[in-house]
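TL;DR need structure tokens for one chain.
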Amino acid sequence: MNSYSLPRCTPEEVGIHSADILKLVRDLEQSGTEMHSLMILRHGKVCAEGWWSPYAQGTVQALQSFTKTVTGAAYGAAEQLGLLDLNERVLDIFPEYAHLTRGSYWDELRLYHLMTMSAGMDRMYPVKAEDWQPGFFTIPIANKPGSTMFYNSSACSLVGSCVRKRSGKSLLEFLREHVFSKIGIDSDRVKWLTHPDGQENGSGGIMMTTEDDARLIQLYLQHGMWNGEQVISRRWADMAVQLQNGHVARTGENCALGYGGMMWIRENCFYADGGMGQYGIGFPEKDMVIVITETIASAEANEAVTRLAFRFDRCVQEEPLPTNDADCAQLRAYLGALSLPKPACSGLHAALPIGKTFVIREGVVPLFAEDFCIFNAAYSEPVGTLRFTQEGRTLTMEVASASGVNTFRTSTDGRRWYNHLHSNSLATELALSADWVDETTLRMDLRWVESCRSRTATFRFLPDGNSIRITVEQGDVGGFDEGPWNALATAETVQEGDAV
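>> reply
TL;DR here they are.
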């Protein structure tokens, strides 16, 4: 494994004022988004990096459609190895599905069209369906391939299946050997959500660190080269970052020109774009990469963030700048103290019902990363029972769910506690805080760090001492709102030996 840290330098060494980066960070914090991380590279060196606690340098986070750019890199490596070619007909790769297709346009569909959102379809087979792969071939191609733009995640996932079929390896295994190991990404740390058939979801579902994201974009800036080796084909690396599909309705100056190869294109940059604001931006003329991870909840916040990020290249000078120790130290101190707002702390203290097992009798209690069910229903984690213990302001909640028993630990003193747990999904890292709303109502804020979401669970302990009214709420972030995000449930105690 060729894993190593990218070189670090001061912003001034690569032609950027520390004060300009500090202003960018503060403006991002005021934009209405919830920032998780920021990294800026110039000439292959990290000149600024920061994580908003509880997110941290080694945190992997779900990237949603940023995954498409990762899958594009897998294709680029396959092309470099002679396994695939953009001009190949899709039906030549999957002849077993030819009998499912209808219409003459299927004979014209090539890998190039899958990777440039120009397959000609006007609807998409669900990526979470068990038969998503054969199902793709049942969708009519309404327009001549190459003549329209339709954002088709199933088509991008099929690109991953093409790599799998020709290489004989899973998408992650192939990337581990031919891309990740060569550019310094620790694949043992990478997580990847799958389709119901077990294949990695090539259109959305990978989880990587901020630096991993930056390495991938840097690879494209370097025309697919890394340490003197052509990791992905130069033809693909150069084609992917150029406009290939301009059939996009532009709604203003702050929007994409169109699509390249498994990524978006603007006048001054190319970029990977994952839902809820996961951006990896490459500025070829400035030889610069900006990576942002966040949770964006509104169109207004997204507009503000993209204006700031996509125009930051205007702050970059061609030559190194004079050293400015004071500005550099101020930036370093600010980046080192980043944090999300502190959890609520009312100062109230109340007693939990100790030693009782509460069974969920009605409704659902979605305490886990249920948002990953948009990729695969198998990631659901139904909660069956709860059991509380308490020592001063420190409390634990034993949760029995579909994957077994976890112990959630936290306190009511205004701190987040980090929990390493297990679940049906790949989310294992939980930042948890709690606070008493009143003497009978406990509120917990749950943040699965791999996910972009957080949720609030409210437990109202009823006067009989044997019942809980539970409400779980999750904010609308737009486009990814599936599942019981505003769930109401009741729990009752059971005696030892009773059936649950």
